[in-house]
Amino acid sequence: MIEAIKEIGEYALKKEGKNIDEPLDILIDDPESDPKKPSYKKILVILIKKVGEKYDYIGVDIEEYKREKIDKYLYGQGSSKGTDITPTSRVTTIDSTFEKTKILPWFNNHQENSLDEGINLVNIGDCIRNNKEQILNELKEKHSEIDKKEKCVITLKIDGKYIGEYDIFRKILVEESKKGFYSKYGKISKAENEVCYVCNERKSVVCGFVDTYKFYTVEKIGFVSGGFNQKDAWKVYPVCLECALILTAGKKYVDGNLNFNFYGFNYHLIPKFINREDYEKKKDVFKLMEEQQDPKFKRRDVKRLTQDEKEILELMSKEENYMNMNFMFYEARKGPDGSVFNILLYIEDILPSRLKTLFDVKSKIDKIDIFKECLVPVFENKKKTGETSMEFNFGVVRTFFLKISKNRTYNKYFLDIVNKIFTKKPVDYDFLLQFIMQKIRNEFVNDYSTKISTLKGFMLLNYLNKLEILKNNKKNIGILKMEPNTSNVREDDTLEKKEEIQQKSDALFKEFANFFDSEAKKAIFLEGVLAQFLLNIQYQERKATPFRVKLKGLKLNEKEIKTLLPEIQNKLEEYGKNYYRTMESIISNYFVSAGNKWKLTNYEISFYFVLGMNLSNKFKSKKEEENKNDNE
């Protein structure tokens, strides 16, 4: 990962015409963590004027945040619990930011009497300290005028000039930032004439506290490999100042241009090029990524595997294998540059050809009739705006592995399956089916429709199966060829009708042959169809479905499935609406062929049954249509 970040940093520096010998532009932070969706829209400016050798407080002004002025704001993020590198800070609360942790404490820590450009930090600090009550009150007053949804920043102007227009503050930003690479926790960790881990060259100085993404930390001594002293951290991860600056530039580029949303997570998409010298190829790829992030860019009609409109995976899938993609899923409760940054999953070396496979299989699955015909709601700003055909994306996986469910989180399982899909590792069929049925059963017992969840579950199984990563260790029961059997056909049935139903079921079983690989599964599925027909009739007759209680909350086993068939038949006869004797005959034949002691889990039995219930519309009879007994 570090090599890829360095490569991106080198590209960003070249593109923006920056030089590590002039590091100021590299080290300045943008107060707005996401310039594409600005939330820091206001700047609170403390106005100070020099009078002789002293400084007078003038007042507080409000300005609009402008990204082209970040070099003048001169923001350098520091510690979340301490001061920033310069007296420009994001506002949490006015009291905390101005008086307790940021602005005033910054001047208390900088008592040097610099006379650069006539600036005296001690006297400026005295002015702020002497007027702190008035400044605090006026900051609060101005802050109250700002929309509560808009965040803001506090900075200073001295004689009408921003702090970034004074050399003294620029020097402090550069020197303090560099110092942060080797000085932390009250320790100094650096060495001379040692080899840099990143560029593999011997450098005059290497530092021990370069923590680009905090994947390596020495915040506590116990975290250091071997438990040695923090001052020896450079021995574990030595980085020269040049590489530290390049990594800083790379991280800022990634945060601003290669950041995407993923069902409750964020991830960075980090490309790594096989030919590091091909600048033009990099330029084309990064330009594509930058455009996709720009809200003004008119996006092409592309397929997506996530809900993020900025996602560019399909575009990347069309590239040749001259690079690989790396996915860094992270949790950052205080933003990507905040103090709380945890890497949750890092997926390495995904070639464009692998992405192409994921999209090709998605396209095939999306075209299957039972999924195309299933309409799912479309939401915008949490409001339903319409319906669309079901399509595969990682949201289908998320359906069964929610962030929070019954006070538990399934984030770890969700990311594990995402990782396996990208890296072509097996996903356990039984494990997956357990979570699919957990979701469906919860909906069933609460009298919610189970159709969308059931078909999403079946879609997920089909997607993984097409990717050849659905793992099932059990031996499958052999498929038995069955000849049409007319021995159980009633007088009001015909061989032609039975063959029609058999053809419908055979067509579906053939389309999903990998899933209907035993007579038991076919019997269970068709019995689910029959059960739904009964429920439809009950609702038509009574506006209630009392037979649902017989389905035991969809916690079914082999014995209960076999018991249900005659119970369903009897109920249909009681209503005088048993139009399904041919189907009952087919189910009975499958049961006979399946024998006893099926090699199916109760989760499988329940899933195939509820799948039949939700695909019952595929088996409507003409008689049923005529009598309008199907309420779907």
Structural account:
43% of the residues lie in helices and 16% in strands. Strand 1 and strand 2 form a beta hairpin. Helix 4 packs antiparallel against helix 7 (132-144), helix 14 (394-400) packs across helix 17 (451-466) and helix 19 packs parallel to helix 20 (558-574).
Structural class: alpha+beta
The CA-CA distance between the termini, in Å, is: 53 Å
Principal-axis shape: elongated
Largest sheet features: 5 strands, mixed
Instruction: Point out poorly predicted stretches.
Output: 475-493, 628-632
User: What is the percent of helical residues?
Assistant: 40-55%
Number of strands: 18
Work out the strand percent: 15-25%
* Rg over CA atoms: 33 Å
Total helical segments: 23
Output mean pLDDT.
Answer: 87
Provide the descriptors you would attach to this structure in a database record.
disordered C terminus, 632 residues, alpha+beta, four-stranded antiparallel sheet, single chain
Break the fold down into its secondary structure elements and pairings.
Layout: H1 2-15, H2 24-27, E1 40-51, E2 54-64, H3 70-73, E3 89-90, H4 94-101, H5 103-109, H6 121-130, H7 132-144, E4 151-158, E5 161-162, H8 167-180, E6 183-184, E7 187-188, E8 190-195, E9 202-207, E10 239-240, H9 241-257, E11 259-262, E12 265-273, H10 279-293, H11 313-317, E13 323-332, E14 341-350, H12 352-366, H13 369-372, E15 375-380, E16 383-389, H14 394-400, H15 411-423, E17 427-428, H16 429-445, H17 451-466, E18 470-471, H18 495-511, H19 519-542, H20 558-574, H21 581-594, H22 602-614, H23 622-627
Short description:
With 632 residues, the protein is α+β, with helices and mostly antiparallel strands. It contains 23 helices and 18 strands.
